Amino acid sequence: MPDEDRNAVSNDEVMAEYERFFAPIGPSLSNFSRRYNFFLEKYYHEAPCWSLCFSPPQGGFAKVDICRKSDDTVSIVGIWWVDDYDHGTRSLKRTAKEEVERDSALIEAGVIAKVKEVLTSKPGEWTQVATGYQELWSKTWTKRQFDQFQHSDQFPVPTLAAFL
Questions:
Q1: What is the rounded distance in angstroms from the CA atom of residue 111 to the CA atom of residue 51?
Q2: Domain of 24?
Q3: What is the pLDDT of residues 7-35, one digit of tens each?
Q4: Any idea what the CATH number is for the domain that residue 147 is in?
Q5: Cβ neighbours of 157 (radius 10 Å)
Q6: 162 in helix, strand or coil?
Q7: With b meaning 16 or more CB within 10 Å and e meaning fewer, what string describes 90-112?
């Protein structure tokens, strides 16, 4: 048996480790999500992150990622994106990452700051415009289907008064 097979960590073990890491802060993040009407997504693409997803008033979609940085810290970053079917682009605004201790109060303060930063961003203030989506999107959806998806209630509108 090759060494890499013998030393491989199973996906279940990785996910169990993520759960152990987030256990002390998970209830606070879950409560925050419910209180302010965010969709809480855990471990997207099996990453050690929890995301608070929402539909911002300026269009597109947004989230704040809380990701394991070390055994004692998390990074917090806000991301807002708007997709353009005709041009095959995704325009993104990323906030600067903030690293804080794995403490619920510090994390909540960091999340609030990132949500405010996303909500006050304006179209054109992009940190990245990713191209090359046109072929993929046109094979997957018609323009009408894509537009319907973009205007769907995939993510909730957060209780904005708390952030503005």
A1: 10
A2: 3-157
A3: 567 888 999 999 999 999 999 999 999 99
A4: 3.30.1460
A5: 12
A6: helix
A7: bbbbbbeebebebbeebbbebbb
